[in-house]
Amino acid sequence: xxxxxxxxxxxxxxxxxxxxxxxxxxxxxxxxxxxxxxxxxxxxxxxxxxxxxxxxxxxxxxxxxxxxxxxxxxxxxxxxxxxxxxxxxxxxxxxxxxxxxxxxxxxxxxxxxxxxxxxxxxxxxxxxxxxxxxxxxxxxxxxxxxxxxxxxxxxxxxxxxxxxxxxxxxxxxxxxxxxxxxxxxxxxxxxxxxxxxxxxxxxxxxxxxxxxxxxxxxxxxxxxxxxxxxxxxxxxxxxxxxxxxxxxxxxxxxxxxxxxxxxxxxxxxxxxxxxxxxxxxxxxxxxxxxxxxxxxxxxxxxxxxxxxxxxxxxxxxxxxxxxxxxxxxxxxxxxxxxxxxxxxxxxxxxxxxxxxxxxxxxxxxxxxxxxxxxxxxxxxxxxxxxxxxxxxxxxxxx
Length: 398
Ligand SMILES: Cc1cc2nc3c(=O)[nH]c(=O)nc-3n(C[C@H](O)[C@H](O)[C@H](O)COP(=O)(O)OP(=O)(O)OC[C@H]3O[C@@H](n4cnc5c(N)ncnc54)[C@H](O)[C@@H]3O)c2cc1C
What we know:
This protein is an alpha/beta fold.
């Protein structure tokens, strides 16, 4: 670890790895600091990602792909099962990753590009000079070192503190934090090529429960419920245990993973003088699905591209860095977040009976390619009244 870099990246998740790799590829000196002793562990993720989304960043490698998904199943609150099979979904549905290896691979690629990495190294405070973020105090094995940088990229995940220390309001309302628990389970009867989503207020209030296969008779079985629905006797774990006892009574739990996912709108502004914020730290998780791996990689890469251009011009002011904020908001990803936030807000208010009707209405659809967007389009086609209801909701949220 040197005392000065062009770019200091806080966090060694997908956002930080892509930021470090891109900065190094642009010829900048870059350091990724990760507070945990190992990249990728412990995993706090169901590990699902769309194939095309992943291919945008990295070629698939069997070393970090646990399972190949060719179908998806949605179970309505009334138990009705809607299957989106491979004949409809093609082979494009997605992968379930092994993030312990995947995250490592991403950081490895960053180091191959020339970035430095330091594990067990926690950014404990920003270095601030004349209102600019100029680096961070890094704690490593009881010692604190100053690392200065022209630009800092905060990619410190959902529990992000760095941006708050720099004066940015990163608060997420309790109702918009999905309280999540996941078990890695073995010895369970599953379709090893299909993800399953269970919906309904008795199963997962204002959220969903998932079974994402990790191979033969093994899956991530998890749940996310709204923070405001969580309380004594009805926490995420209580719902999950009820489901597991009923559905997989003989299954064995080999890993227990608690976590939180923000399903709010992104931060109002994701830059400051000398600072860019990427991934979960910027609250760019898809509010409808809770998926954030792609968005983290996308914003991590973009943040480093903008940092490189601004460093070259010698202007890392908030005004100059704003092109990052503008670019991701105007991207397909940014627009999807805005649209899916609205749909999420609509869906969480629906009674189960209406959710049943919606799922029944699209039970015979035929999609060439299964994506969240295509499913939404089909739902709206089958329920044109929804456009008006969503329009009214959008107006009320403005
Ligand atoms: C239960 C659950 C299930 C999920 N399932 C999916 C899914 O199926 N698909 C999907 O796409 N997304 C899913 N997500 C979301 C996904 O995990 C995140 O969106 C993604 O990991 C975001 O990447 P990131 O790099 O922004 O943050 P992270 O992956 O969280 O990485 C941030 C890193 O920063 C480090 N860090 C934090 N503070 C500091 C500090 N001060 N100094 C140094 N290092 C620091 C952390 O230790 C961490 O390693 C899920 C999340 C949860 C909780």
